[in-house]
Amino acid sequence: MGKKSVIQVAVGVIRNDQGELLITQRHGHQHQGGCWEFPGGKIELNELVEQALQRELREELAIEVVQAEPLIMIPFEYPEYHVVLNVWQVMQFSGDPAGQEGQPVAWVSEAQLVEFTFPEANRAIISAIQLPSRYMITGKPADEPERFLQKLESALVQGIKLVQLRAKGLDDDAFLQLAKRALSLCHQYGAKLLLNGDPSLLEVLPEADGIQLSSHHSTAFDNRPIALDKLLGVSCHTREQLDQAVRINADFALLSPVQATATHPDDKPLGWSRFSSLVADVPIPVYALGGMDASLENKARQHGGQGIAAISALWNAQSQS
């Protein structure tokens, strides 16, 4: 069997001033006709991604890209060929978008995306759009609920929108009681809370927003262990573990340690170059974990990450609040 051809594609995630996203519908005669997608097209020989994005959006929508930045790179296998989606966020553009090839165009909110049928390859784009750039992991004092919840609320007030409840020292009953109160608080501030533990926790707390699996725990599954309307994260340290996260259809992964940490001084850090090479062709968003702080968000994105995940920099920062 011959080697599959690789098609490089530039894709634009375009937002308007209201925060809505622009999507277009494929013509019925096209591959996966009728599906909605984020606009873009093939990158020509010797063309940079930015140049292809400019050209495609000009040809398809009659707009000019003013400001854009990389969001995620997604490899995807079709039976006949291999596609790599180079997805960029378009933060500023000029012109009034309109389908220049007769294709329907719609502005939709993030919440409305679930109402449309997208190609499977676009699922990771939607995850990357909807996930924030900071993922806070809770720390101590889980055994002091009132202090714990005060720290959580302080972080939520400061804009944290994605939280992992990690409280290894608690027994099952204490964990569930804390989780119920933490969930109520997170939802009050429009944030999502994932439970670090077994997927069966969702049977007890169906209102939770998802599950965070350890790398070891993820190997117990051959398929996605929770429903698609919940978030599934997997903590990883190697490429093999990232591949397992993809295999079980996780929504995102954590990769650590990127930098040295005080809590795990003997763990050799990956460094940014290694982090970048490991996540380059992983088709799901990946957070950088280990030695992170808010000032490294952009650096993580520049190296192919979704953003940063942290305990010390995000949770412990609330100690002074």
From TrEMBL:
EC number: 3.6.1.55
GO molecular function, one term: 8-oxo-7,8-dihydrodeoxyguanosine triphosphate pyrophosphatase activity
Record keywords, A-Z: DNA damage, DNA repair, DNA replication, Hydrolase, Magnesium, Metal-binding, Mutator protein
Cofactor: Mg(2+)
Reaction equation(s) it catalyzes: 8-oxo-dGTP + H2O = 8-oxo-dGMP + diphosphate + H(+)
Biological processes annotated in GO: DNA repair; DNA replication; thiamine biosynthetic process
Domain Nudix hydrolase: 4-132
Name of the top EC class for this enzyme: hydrolase
Protein family membership: Belongs to the Nudix hydrolase family.
NCBIfam families per UniProt: mutt (TIGR00586), PRK08999.1 (NF006530)
Protein name: 8-oxo-dGTP diphosphatase
Native source species: hydrothermal vent metagenome
